[in-house]
UniProtKB/TrEMBL annotation:
Coiled coil: none annotated. This is Prepilin-type N-terminal cleavage/methylation domain-containing protein. It is a single-pass membrane protein. The keyword Disulfide bond does not apply. The chain crosses the membrane at residues 26-46. Residues 175-214 are annotated as: Disordered. PANTHER family: TYPE II SECRETION SYSTEM PROTEIN J (PTHR39583:SF2), TYPE II SECRETION SYSTEM PROTEIN J-RELATED (PTHR39583). InterPro entries: N_methyl_site (IPR012902), Pilin-like (IPR045584), T2SS_protein_J (IPR051621). It is found in: Cell inner membrane.
Length: 245
């Protein structure tokens, strides 16, 4: 009776082999498959994180460019709202490449020039003055700008074209700023005497010949250059009504 009981207590060959497999652990192929799956999951997770970071950078760049554009347009409007006719130099002119204007400041009159150099919109502002001669010198200098002068600001890049139009209330129509507009006729006057030191840049006693009248409105049209990652495309148009004193 004891011998059969002892025989029944011995483990079977199948159970012995199973215990040996469990003790042996994973095979090399199983480990390699597990590592491949982990590497694949890590790669997919990194692509997702990289996509999120890239989207964030693009959104941030678009926001910064939009804020920059709004600042430039605000400065453009501020220049035109402070427009003043000194009758010493043309108060507002556009030759196809440069927009020149004279604006009234607390310390005198300032000549401002907007120009497109390459694909960068630049703004040059001369020092404010109360004398006629420095204002005339600044106007002549604005025809020879190189972009490295003091007072030059690279306002906005990615601009393909710059165009300006003037609105005349008399004709109730927009016209190219390079075309001839309404003319103001006046009696000839002798040339003004040189201003005294510290004198203001005031107009001479009279206006001679025909001079173009200030328009009643100004339209700015900026053509945007195509570039990857930019939300804007086409062109931007901004109209501003001028109020004459």
């Amino acid at each position: 009776m004891n011998e059969p009981a002892a025989a029944m207590a011995l483990p079977s060959p199948t159970a012995t082999r199973c215990r040996r497999r469990r003790a042996r652990g994973f095979t090399l192929i199983e480990v390699m498959v597990a590592l491949f799956v982990l590497a694949l999951m890590a790669g997919m997770a990194w692509q997702g994180v990289d996509m999120v970071l890239r989207s964030r950078e693009i959104s941030q760049a678009r926001l910064e460019r939009l804020l920059r554009l709004q600042s430039v347009l605000a400065q453009w409007e501020a220049d035109l709202r402070q427009l003043v006719d000194t009758q010493v130099v043309p108060p507002l002119s556009f030759d196809g490449a440069h927009l020149r204007l004279t604006r009234l400041q607390a310390d005198g009159v300032q000549l401002v020039t907007w120009t497109l150099r390459g694909q960068t919109l630049e703004r040059w502002a001369a020092p404010a003055t109360r004398q006629s001669e420095p204002l005339q010198e600044a106007y002549m200098r604005s025809h020879q700008l190189l972009g490295s002068e003091s007072g030059t600001l690279a306002a906005l890049d990615g601009i393909a074209s710059l165009q300006v139009y003037f609105f005349d209330q008399s004709s109730n129509a927009w016209r190219n700023a390079q075309s001839s507009g309404d003319q103001e006729q006046s009696e000839p006057a002798p040339p003004p005497e040189p201003p005294a030191t510290g004198g203001a840049a005031t107009p001479p006693p009279g206006k001679g010949g025909a001079r173009e009248a200030l328009p009643d409105g100004v339209r700015l049209v900026l053509g945007l250059a195509e570039a990857e990652g930019r939300a804007e495309s086409g062109q931007i148009t901004r109209d501003l009504r001028l109020i004459h004193p």
